[in-house]
TrEMBL record:
Highest taxon of source: Eukaryota
This protein's UniProt keywords: Kelch repeat
Protein name, as recorded: Uncharacterized protein
Gene3D superfamilies assigned to the protein according to its UniProt record, in alphabetical order: Kelch-type beta propeller (2.120.10.80)
SUPFAM superfamilies: Kelch motif (SSF117281)
Length: 230
């Protein structure tokens, strides 16, 4: 069954689900001025209709969104001034209210985020000075951040997946030298890494996938999606 189109076209938005609804958070307008948005669109999967909830506390794009126990978390991204944000906020879909939470240690955009064992992991991404390999973990219960083992390479657009008690990182973009020179250029990465929680380090487990800009878990299989590059 085809869904009705999103009421307001946008890109670099966040996507999450809660209370049997799909949330489209922030992003930038597909218009000449590319205004940064704070609006939140909500698709009700029972009525098959789009609506709108209260706007997020601030306009944001290039952020990450995750959901846990019917709460949508909005992490990082960039604001109106195009600077990376440390900000974190959450929307309680049952109480219909936003709340600002403890900020991340590193301001970043275009990074990976996932809920893993009741904590939110964020990895790599873009900072105001370039790519980063830093990883930090948010404890939902205590509202506190802590540092974790760095990712093996500075990169953006990496995807994090939690599956069968393991944490995986998939694809993204890294800076790699050209074959005939030392010049660094962006390159699509085609590897998958798993985080070893005992040894506190990342280990590569597969290097054969095509470019993956999205990753989902269906059943007990890790699926990568080849999506159109922006």
């Amino acid at each position: 069954m085809a869904m009705p189109p999103v009421p307001s076209p946008r890109f670099l938005f966040g996507l999450a689900e809660a209370e049997n609804s799909i949330f489209v958070v922030g992003g930038r307008e597909l218009k000449d001025q590319e205004q940064t948005l704070d609006s939140v669109l909500v698709y009700d999967r029972q009525s098959f209709k789009w609506g709108e909830s209260d706007p997020s506390p601030y306009p944001v794009y290039g952020h990450s969104t995750v959901s846990h126990n019917d709460v949508v978390y909005v992490l990082g991204g960039k604001g109106d001034n195009k600077s990376c944000l440390k900000k974190v906020c959450a929307y309680d879909a049952k109480r219909f209210e936003w709340k600002e939470l403890a900020p991340m240690t590193t301001a970043r955009s275009l990074f990976g985020a996932v809920v893993h064992k009741d904590k939110i992991y964020v990895a790599a991404g873009v900072t105001d000075t370039g790519l980063t390999d830093s990883v930090e973990v948010y404890d939902i219960k205590s509202n506190k951040w802590s540092e974790s083992a760095v990712f093996p390479q500075e990169r953006s657009s990496v995807n994090l997946v939690s599956l069968a008690d393991s944490l995986y990182a998939v694809g993204g973009f890294g800076m790699m030298p050209l074959e005939d020179s030392d010049e660094l250029v962006p390159k699509e990465m085609n590897d998958i890494w798993r985080y070893d929680e005992t040894q506190k380090k990342w280990t590569g487990i597969l290097r054969e996938i095509q470019y993956a800009s999205g990753a989902t878990v269906l059943g007990v299989r890790l699926n990568t999606l080849r999506l159109t590059k922006m």
